[in-house]
Design a protein that fits this description.
By secondary structure, the protein is an alpha/beta fold. Among the domains are: 157 residues, FAD/NAD(P)-binding domain (3-Layer(bba) Sandwich), CATH 3.50.50; 145 residues, FAD/NAD(P)-binding domain, CATH 3.50.50.100. Helices cover 33% and strands 23% of the residues. The strands form eight sheets. Strands 5-2-1-9-21-20 form a six-stranded mixed beta sheet. It has a four-stranded parallel beta sheet with strand order 13-12-11-17. The N and C termini lie far apart (64 Å).
């Protein structure tokens, strides 16, 4: 075994090689059980290292389908898999539940709420959290959508709004209860808007004697001039038309002034609403603070071409927490595909260093396309050279999402639930959890 000769990668490899020569497998700590962390661990499980996999939740979450939990199409267990179940047969992987408190890069120790974990290599893949652009008060009135708790809370509010509208004492109160405001028209925003329109206007209205489709108002606010910023204009225009046809009031070029307990003010107009959903922005988890590194755009940590922290070849940051650049010098988007490819790359990179192999080429993201769906059986797909829209794009969307679910059980559940909803036109998870009278 011949470690690299020059630079900090060589020193990291030398230490790892020394551990192997001493009969000790190098210790790799992976923080985060999202797409990036899972991809890294999947690679490392085949190599002579010991992996400690840490997350503050006990499950891997398929975030692209969170909005379907929030709109009663799926149950939480359909899109989440316990981390210990995933790693059950991976003999060199240890799973720990805990919240990261600090990371000491000099001593090579991660301190969590459950104790200290030493490392030889560290992979941080903790993703992003909801950002209200510095307006802390808005968080009290507008629900973000980043975890299962958020999705269940939104589902509760949407279903309670319908229940209470059915027995509301006045038309004014009924209109306020049946006005759903979504802020941000990126993929999450348009998917939520379409799903709520389907749910409230078509699927559930027959169950409520005093609620009519025309009483339901779904308003989508976007500060940019088009929905799906970053998508090609033809696909964005199609999504806009489709949402409008579904009864969604799409307002682009509309700046948000403030969010209040019972409504929002946007474009100098006040909109009364009891259900306000935030899908306008995210920021990185406090990785820069943990690593004592400089925070860049949206709190992300700037990484080198091999996704390591500058000057420290033993620490890698991937996914939404990393500010990585493409070949043209543009930041990579915060997509699951980016995190998955980065995780696999870092896993192979660490395996190479452990075995004393030469450095790999820099990370390059391969863009396989971007998808977004608008309600029932309609979507857009951007493959660069090919644009799909409508039912065909939706079929591609279904296949991709079923394929990338982690467990066979999850794939089966989701497929059955989607088939039931498509043919019966009924949501399968319309449960209000907790005491409905406490809110």
């Amino acid at each position: 075994m011949t470690p690299l000769k020059n630079g900090s990668p060589g020193r990291a490899s030398a230490r790892a090689a020394a551990s192997l020569d001493a009969g000790m497998a190098p210790r790799v700590v992976v923080v985060g059980a999202g797409f990036g962390g899972l991809a890294a661990v999947r690679v490392l499980r085949r190599h002579p290292v010991t992996v400690t996999w840490i997350d503050r939740r006990n499950h891997h979450l398929f975030q692209p389908l969170l909005y379907q939990v929030a709109t009663a199409a799926l149950s939480p267990a359909d899109i989440a898999t316990p981390v210990r179940e995933i790693a059950r047969k991976w003999t060199n992987v240890e799973v720990r539940l805990g919240t990261v408190l600090t990371i000491d890069r000099k001593q090579r120790v991660v301190t969590t709420s459950e104790g200290e974990v030493p490392y030889d290599f560290l992979v941080v893949a903790t993703g992003a959290e909801t950002s209200y652009f510095g307006n802390k008060d808005w968080a009290r009135h507008a629900d973000g959508l980043k975890g299962l708790e958020d999705a269940v809370a939104i589902r509760r509010k949407v279903l309670l709004a319908l229940e209470r509208a059915d027995t509301a004492p006045s038309d004014e109160e009924r209109r306020r209860l049946l006005t759903f405001v979504l802020i941000g028209a990126g993929p999450t925003g348009i998917e939520m808007a379409g799903a709520i329109a389907d749910l409230a206007k078509r699927m559930l209205v027959p169950d409520f004697r005093n609620v009519k489709p025309e009483m339901v108002s779904v308003i989508l606010l976007e500060a940019m001039d088009q929905v799906l910023p970053g998508f090609p204009q033809d696909l964005a225009a199609f999504a806009h038309r489709k949402l409008t046809d579904m009864g969604v009031d799409v307002r682009t070029g509309t700046m948000l002034d403030r969010i209040e307990e019972d409504g929002v003010v946007a474009g100098d107009q006040r909109i009364a609403s009891r259900v306000i959903i935030w899908s306008a922005g995210v920021k990185a988890t406090p990785v820069a603070h943990w690593l004592d590194a400089e925070a860049g755009e949206k709190g992300k940590v700037t990484v080198t071409s091999d996704l390591s922290v500058p000057g420290d070849a033993q620490v890698y940051v991937i996914g939404d927490a990393a500010l990585a650049l493409d070949e043209e010098g543009n930041p990579l988007p915060g997509l699951a595909a980016v995190a998955k490819q980065q995780g696999a790359f870092v896993g192979r990179r660490i395996a190479d260093l452990v075995r004393g192999r030469q450095e790999r080429p820099p990370f390059r993201y391969r863009d396989w396309g971007t998808l977004a769906t608008m309600g029932r059986a309609s979507a857009v797909a951007d493959f660069g050279w090919l644009h799909l829209r409508g039912f065909g794009a939706w079929v591609v969307w279904v296949v991709v999402h079923i394929w990338y679910l982690v467990a066979f059980r999850n794939r089966t559940r989701v497929l059955v639930n989607w088939a039931w909803e498509y043919f019966a036109f009924r949501p399968g998870a319309r449960l209000i959890t907790g005491d409905p009278h406490r809110d």
